[in-house]
TrEMBL record:
Gene3D superfamilies: 3.90.550.20. GO terms for molecular function: glycosyltransferase activity. It comes from Bimuria novae-zelandiae CBS 107.79. InterPro entries: AfumC-like_glycosyl_Trfase (IPR008441), Nucleotide-diphossugar_trans (IPR029044). SUPFAM superfamilies: Nucleotide-diphospho-sugar transferases (SSF53448). This is Capsule polysaccharide biosynthesis protein.
């Protein structure tokens, strides 16, 4: 666990060693693979279809860091899977045959399409939070800020009005929560409705086996398609076929259909159900702006994954060396993330087709590149485990916006 003596960035403090689990990796892995019984809402949920031991090394390092940082504050890391006979199989935590919990395609194991694994994990997030509470995070999310402190100031405080914590991919008047970090107590009113809507989208046409075309559902009428912040000329697929720029937004929307469901629920007033989404959001959602909060490396590099990989792979200058321009860029990235961000999401999946290789995909392809002592990547990893920003992330000030829909959430108008 020893690291070079990296400089502590401004507005960042070192954590007391007593607050960290600094045992060897093998013992940390054993703890992750053998979590105790569920006794509170302080659960940090992850899902990897083939289980923790079959994850990519850089994402296993992510999970270990979550455990080292937060287990001594009462949090339990739980990496669930779909492996037969595994004690961490999702079926040991949720009824996979309950049609009010999972769509038929999940139950029967027939979810198809290029991103079947991602959509499988999408379907376990809300059910886990609704039944047990806590945090659901993607395995590619590197935690930086004080999760326990934010929980205690929001969901974990009975006097707090904040019932949901997530990142918001937009300004204060936008309702576009990301699904890679979702935080709530049990039986949350927002997520309960989101999950019911998502199940209806999967049940359309007698039961879908993929999310293809879900963006056209009348149940989502009025919710803008995703991808508006990206300008791309189109996508040439591996088989040579081309997806024109006009269709990229539809492709992204189908890929992140869970986000569309959240936006509709947050933007719907259903008087029959007693639900006022815009009012609930303004009063009960602690939304953190996502670029600074969880995508800051991409802001520094303009979503250029190869540049991010190159900069993070550089060695820090030795004591007598002058800092190069690229080393300065890399230093500003690391200092910025560790002082200003709450996390960093390593992107994978469809985003690679849209924007090219990402830092996450290149760490996957270059095993161990994220963990070379003396590099900026290793400095970043060191900081996510041993240090913490001085401040909790700010909440966007949300007002009560005009709804997209007035009428029954779960029926077409």
């Amino acid at each position: 666990m020893e690291s070079p003596a990296y400089p502590l960035p401004p507005s960042v403090h070192a954590l007391p060693p007593s607050s960290l689990d600094l045992r060897p990796d093998a013992q940390i892995d054993h703890a992750i693979l053998h979590p105790g019984p569920i006794t509170s809402e302080k659960n940090i949920w992850f899902f990897w279809h083939t289980g923790f031991t079959h994850m990519h090394p850089y994402t296993r390092r992510n999970i270990r860091a979550w455990h080292r940082r937060f287990s001594r504050s009462g949090w339990t890391i739980r990496v669930l899977d779909r492996q037969p006979s595994s004690p961490l199989n999702i079926e040991n935590f949720l009824d996979v045959n309950d049609e009010a919990t999972f769509p038929r395609a999940f139950t029967e194991g027939v979810i198809g399409g290029e991103y079947a694994a991602q959509h499988t994990s999408d379907l376990v997030r809300w059910p886990l939070l609704l039944k047990y509470g806590g945090v659901y995070a993607d395995v590619g999310l590197m935690q930086i800020g004080d999760l326990d402190g934010l929980w205690n100031a929001t969901i974990g405080d009975p006097a707090s009005p904040w019932e949901v914590v997530s990142y918001n991919a937009g300004g204060p008047s936008s309702r576009s929560l990301t699904n890679y970090f979702l935080c709530a107590g049990k039986d949350n009113a927002l997520f309960a409705r989101c999950h019911k809507l998502l199940l209806l989208l999967w049940a359309a046409d007698g039961g879908k086996s993929s999310t293809d075309g879900m963006c056209d559902s009348p149940l989502l009428k009025g919710v803008p398609n995703m991808g508006g912040t990206f300008s791309v000329p189109g996508i040439v697929q591996e088989d040579g076929t081309r997806i024109e720029a006009a269709d990229v937004g539809r492709l992204l929307t189908d890929y992140i259909i869970q986000g569309q469901a959240m936006t509709m629920v947050m933007s719907c007033v259903d008087e029959d159900d007693g639900w006022d989404g815009p009012k609930y959001c303004a009063e009960h959602v602690y939304a953190v702006e996502y670029m600074q909060g969880s995508q800051l490396i991409n802001e520094f590099t303009a979503w250029d994954g190869e540049k991010a990989f190159r900069l993070m792979s550089l060695p820090l200058p030795k004591e007598e060396e002058e800092e190069s321009e690229e080393q300065r860029e890399a230093r500003l990235i690391v200092e910025g993330c560790l002082s200003r961000s709450f996390g960093f999401k390593l992107a994978h999946g469809l985003i690679i087709k849209v924007l090219g290789q990402t830092l996450g995909s290149l760490w996957r392809a270059n095993e161990g590149a994220d963990d070379v002592p003396g590099t900026y990547a290793h400095w970043l990893r060191h900081g996510t485990m041993y240090w913490c920003p001085d401040e909790l992330p700010e909440r966007q000030e949300w007002q009560v916006e005009e709804p997209i829909k007035r009428g029954p959430l779960l029926r077409e108008n």
